């Protein structure tokens, strides 16, 4: 048993959104999701065998109760009884609508498994990571990933090399944590939004167009389908009681900025998760222009250019504290 390991994972950006949990429980998704794993930003987790489970994120100690189901599922799946001490860092804002839970739990699953001396398959790691965060099931894999509704694990579709020209420009509009966690907002949307079940139906209907667009690398169709998906999701969230609004004035300004770019012939299609940040799909040849124009139009934002990235990667611990 090695006793210690370091694992890195990129966040999983859903193009067809996951929003809502299955009534069957066990943190299963109520909607299908199609996602790309981002390269250029990541979560990195260092895990070691310890006397008790504990975890810090960016140096802040976390509530172990939030992680207990994950650690229990990990031990059950691996057939081990050891406990883990883990420390995770993100190279992007945490809990701010940039899918840090997806990369965080994926990296945690990979680090803990290897620290325990186990080498589970990517499919098994996907199932383990899902218990902590359903979107983490996708972040185990690189490139483009499908997570069917009700599934226990995600399924890889294409590696990152499938679409080397694709870029994702992240417009960071606010670096602080969002006011309502995705987990809580999903439950409040399901319980109180009259649009929730329409969202479930419409989300599934969008998937065939998105898959066709991805297979043919049709950025316009993929971008328009992604825009439809996030719009429907946020409409359902706004229908919660009380309403939940993640967008900030800068978020809306970036949406209008993308519309202006498209009107000028620049391919820039936005998508928004549960938070104020905006992610823009474009091609490599236009990524710099997209980022520059948005920073000019919306003073104070920061843009980060990402690409389709790898799945879990490990490195040897180098004696860090």
Number of helices: 9
The helical percent reads: 25-40%
User: What best-fitting shape do the alpha-carbon axes yield?
Assistant: globular
For this structure, the CATH topology of the largest domain is: Ribosomal Protein S5, domain 2
Question: Overall pLDDT, averaged?
Answer: 96
Q: Total strand count, please?
A: 14
Distance between the termini: 20 Å
* Order of H and E elements: EEEEEEHEHHHEEEHHHHEEHEE
Return the CATH architecture of the largest domain. 2-Layer Sandwich
Which consecutive residue ranges, at least 5 long each, have pLDDT under 50?
none
Q: From the alpha carbons, calculate the radius of gyration and give it in angstroms.
A: 19 Å
Tally of structural domains: 2
Oligomer: single chain
